[in-house]
Design a protein that fits this description.
This protein is 42% helix and 5% strand. It has 84 residues and is mainly alpha-helical.
């Protein structure tokens, strides 16, 4: 089960992101973070690491005038589950 504090932190981060602050806290973000975006899949790309996140934001901002994250739910996963 996800702790209320962890959920609040994630929801606050999504809200901040949608207000235009697309930075990630390097102390809170795993250096091997991966973003699997539908648009990137067409190009055979997975964004990896903090530099990959920055590239993902730049690509999305170039492709769309407006875009936001939607959080539909949270699920706890372990590193061995293959889900992030």
């Amino acid at each position: 089960m996800i702790s209320p504090e962890f959920e609040r932190r994630i929801r606050d981060s999504v809200d901040r992101w949608n207000r235009g602050d697309h930075t990630l806290d390097p102390e809170w973000t795993h250096p091997d973070v991966e973003i699997h975006a539908a648009a990137a899949a067409f190009a055979g790309t997975t964004y990896r690491g903090l530099e990959g996140v920055e590239r993902s934001v730049a690509d999305m901002s170039e492709a769309f005038d407006e875009w936001q994250l939607e959080l539909h739910g949270l699920e706890e996963a372990s590193p061995s589950s293959g889900r992030a």
